[in-house]
Amino acid sequence: QAGVFTYDPGFTSTASCDSTITFIDGDKGELLHRGYPIEQIASKSHFLELSYLLLYGELPSAKDLEKFETTITRHTMLHEQMQYFYRGFRRDAHPMAIMVGVVGAMSAFYHDSTDISDPRQREIASHRLIAKMPTIAAWAYKYHIGQPFVYPRNDLDYASNFLQMCFAVPAEDYEVNPILARAMDRIFMLQADHEQNASTSTVRLASSSGANPFACIAAGIACLWGPAHGGANQACLEMLEEIGSVDRIPEFIERAKDKDDPFRLMGFGHRVYKNFDPRATVMKQSADEVLDLLGIEDNPKLQVAKALEKQALEDPYFIEKKLFPNVDFYSGIVMEAMGFPTSMFTPIFALSRTVGWVSQWKEMIADPQNKIGRPRQLYLGATSRDYVDIENR
Ligand code: SDX
């Protein structure tokens, strides 16, 4: 066994499941995928290699990696008839609404990979979801902006393919910038899996009833959409826009402390990390690199973000509450600099997290102890009483 972690009894008693995929130490700010630190993965690996690691538990040999990459590349196309699903949405539909609908609809198109009792079908469903999610997300974007769909290409890597499906137009050639593709791939890796977060727990709970994988992943996408979870990257950029300038930061920091004010610093805080989010550190480096490459290092939102981070981290309230930037704080700045509208930030998070959801789904389905999730409650309502006819009420 790679390493036996001992949990304190308190933690074990609240654990919703056991897993061997991702380990987080919230106090140390540590994130391991199958034992490998996220910092090393983000600098040395790439998204499909990390996907293989999450799915199968070990880093692949060169031969296995090539076979896996070819399988994923050759499953990136969507059933042509699925285009009609997009046309049923209003043009201004949020891309996440489209992704929830289209991924759920995969249950109706890929019947030969919905029987979860068949390991071969589980494998095919896993590959289809990872392979097709970039196409689904890119087409949601193209539909939203009224441009024609661009098909995936087999001569491009995963991140480059996604960028060309989003930004290429039939009227001219499109050359993927390799630095942007590397930054996109790194964003995919930083958001790939994160233990039992809300959307992963949703996928596990849905899967425990035996529902097909496409319906379960659609449930995860719906949960991720919330601004307290995956929707925070969009909300964070909108917050930075609202703050507008460094001199307005103190006003917003005071609002974030005011219990009567619903305002929270989006991209700050975490349910588990109480020291720092290691992903945010890497994402911040990416922001500097991409903006520097694009020659917009004086990006006003990046200046506000860095000043906000500095002031908040020196503020006694945030120190006492152990609040600091999470993965969503800088990711939006990078994605906006790459040309994405804020409405595409959470779909990109969903695209990245699909491999985490699928890996956790596979782990759960394969567990012979897997039983339908059935959380209990602490009942605080009325005790038993007799019905009162309406004339006596
Ligand atoms: C993700 O679970 C995961 O792993 C999620 C994720 C993943 O990869 O899947 O990491 C992705 O969802 C990251 C989080 C993205 N969300 C945001 O950035 C939204 C803003 N953050 C918050 O809404 C909040 O921090 C949560 C939801 C993330 C956590 O909320 P909690 O459970 O209230 O946080 P906490 O228990 O650590 O809060 C401690 C205190 C509370 O005050 P008191 O009740 O003790 O008086 O800090 C306050 C909170 O009210 N607080 C904030 C705050 N976050 C928490 N105050 C101001 N601004 C904030 N952002």
UniProtKB/TrEMBL annotation:
A Gene Ontology molecular function term of the record: citrate synthase activity
Name of this chain's protein: Citrate synthase
Pfam families: Citrate_synt
UniProt record similarity statement: Belongs to the citrate synthase family.
One biological process term in Gene Ontology: tricarboxylic acid cycle
The entry's keywords: Transferase, Tricarboxylic acid cycle
InterPro entries linked: Citrate_synth-like_lrg_a-sub, Citrate_synth-like_sm_a-sub, Citrate_synthase, Citrate_synthase_AS, Citrate_synthase_bac-typ, Citrate_synthase_sf, Citrate_synthase_typ-I
Reaction(s) catalysed (UniProt annotation): oxaloacetate + acetyl-CoA + H2O = citrate + CoA + H(+)
Domain of life: Bacteria
GO cellular component: cytoplasm
Record pathway: Carbohydrate metabolism; tricarboxylic acid cycle; isocitrate from oxaloacetate: step 1/2
